[in-house]
Amino acid sequence: MKVFGKRNENGRRRPRLHSLVGLAALALVATACGSSGDDQVAPASGKPAAQAPYALSFGDISGGTGDITWAYIEKNALQAKYGLALERRETSAIPTLYSDFAANRYPVTIGSPDAFAAQAAKGLPVRMLSVNGKDAVFLLAKKDLKVPQDLAGATIAGATAAGSFKTLAAVLADTTGLDIQKQSKIVPAQNNMQAITQVIAGSADAAVAWEADVSTALAKYPELKVIYSNVAQFEGKFGVPSFTTSYAYRTDSNIPQDKLQAFFELYREAQTKLQEDPQMADKLAQEVLKSAPGVYASAFESDRLAFAPALVKGKVAEALKKQILVSQNYGIVPTSVPDSFYGTD
User: What is the third-level CATH fold of 18-25+54-135+242-317?
Assistant: First the structure.
């Protein structure tokens, strides 16, 4: 599946636009956070009359859970069900995802809470919408490496622009004492698979990655293994889950609250259905991504990929603040994140 369109005047590829598309998630809110009354965006007054679908563009990462989630949305006509007409602006380059959001090329995007918090601290009018659940970020290495501490002085490849990379670095330092930003050599990559390829080629000792690229790599390269996951360690220490993927929106876009609610509900339905039926998700992945049979089923059934979407409010907002605080303690996120970022101002 081709990801980019034509080159611009600088010779860089522009993200391809796809009309009427849905958003994916790459991962999930912990059951501990609950849903109850926290799954409603602040209510709009009155009930809107019947109208044309609401047009909304958003940023997304191509080539993974985003693609299979959209395939499910298309097959089940969820845009019509929720009154939306979505334009998916996708890229495989994580830095582009955030820079395009900052440049106001779309008002909503998938991404990491840590990355969004850093943008908010710099003055971008960004506010969290939802988290995708119990997301895990992993360290993958060849089997001769046993524990994360073996990576002191080693070379680690990863998509350093991704908030997920920053989240893992902070949680790893806080739970094991290994600060890879100071004790290891970091090699930047554009995405997970580029980082993993560097490990296979021998130019890196380990890679930072998340699902479903982890399951893809484990199936393709049997010499790899997972030596660390941020989820259990963070939850064990702080009593709340760690969120890796999420959706945020620009407050200057003036999107009606009921449309943000519809956007959330659409993706919650799609992600929940995929979570409930790993074999169906795997079949979609084979159709859309041409992935090997069993890769996505393994990702879901192993619980390495576990959708549980929830709005950022109440207990979820409080848990997210704890996560951002850990990142701030290690200088990954500035301390000047406004309360409006969490929707608690």
Answer: D-Maltodextrin-Binding Protein; domain 2 (3.40.190)
